[in-house]
Amino acid sequence: MVSKIEKLLQKGCNERTYLNQDRFLKYGIAIHSPDLVNRGSCTCSTVTHCNYESINKAMHEYESATNYSDLIRKRSRSIKRILDVPNMEKYMIFYAPSGTDLSYYPGIFIKVLHPGRPILNVITAADEVGGGTGIAAEGIYHGAFNQFDEEVPKGSKISGGTKIKVHGIDIRNRHGKLSSPIEDLRAIVTNYVDNHAIVVNLTHCSKSGIEEYLEVMDEPWADKVLWNIDMCQFRYDKQVISDLLSKNAMIMLTGSKFYQSPPFCGAILVPETVYGDLLDADWSKVKMYKSVFSKYDIPAELRMKVDFNLQFNPSLHARWQCAIDEMERYDKLDKEKVAEKVDLWNTKMLRFIDQSREFELMPGLDRTCKTIIPFKVKVNGEYLNLDQLKKFHYKLTTQDYTEDFGQKHIFVGQPVRFNNNEGFIRLAIGSKNIRQYVTEDEYVFEDDIMVMQIIQKQLQVQYAYVD
Question: In which domain, by residue range, is 167 found?
Answer without folding.
Answer: 55-327
